[in-house]
Amino acid sequence: MIVYRISSSKYANDLTGEGARLYGGRWNHKLTPCLYAAATRALAILEYSVNVNIDDIPRALSIVSIEIPDDNIPILKQAQLPGDWRQAPASSSTKDFGTALLQQTQYLTIQIPSAVVPEEYNYLINPLHPEIRNVHIIEIKDCVYDVRIKTR
Can you tell me whether residue 110 is helix, strand or coil? Predict the structure, then answer.
């Protein structure tokens, strides 16, 4: 299966989840690494857009295509998530929930609804899982960010 992430070009080759480990994210607390990816390029750009200020968008941006094994991926439904999972900014209960899943290292990848478009899916890739060696970057392309997404 191919999933996508938007990244500063400087970190496009990184599969360690270091950014999420340093800063946390919707589904993880700081100190817990995670790679966030989306089912489509469009969703990856949308997710990136809602999580970045226009002044913080780097000039060198990449869209990364990542191949992940598509077996043994649990598909979490909205009913399984904390009640406030779509809250912005992300709630501590959402971070607790995702961090617990990642720390179990039972799954390499978890499919989870997008907080922006719940009918679409994001993927949490666990860099600490022993099968991370089966995750491969297959393409890195320059991504020219269309600022109309962030301006009126």
Answer: strand
> Residue 95 and residue 97: Cα distance in Å, rounded?
5
Residue 106: CA atoms inside 13 Å, Cβ hemisphere, count?
9
CA distance 11 to 6: 10
89 upstream amide cis, omega within 30 of 0: yes
What letter would DSSP give residue 80?
Answer: G
- pLDDT tens sequence for the chain (152 residues): 999 999 999 999 999 999 999 999 999 999 999 999 999 999 999 999 998 888 888 789 999 999 999 998 999 999 999 999 999 999 999 999 999 999 998 999 999 999 999 999 999 999 999 999 999 999 999 999 888 888 75
Cα 100 from Cα 72, distance rounded (Å) = 18
Domain ranges of the chain: 2-149
* Cβ–Cβ < 8 Å for 70, 99: no
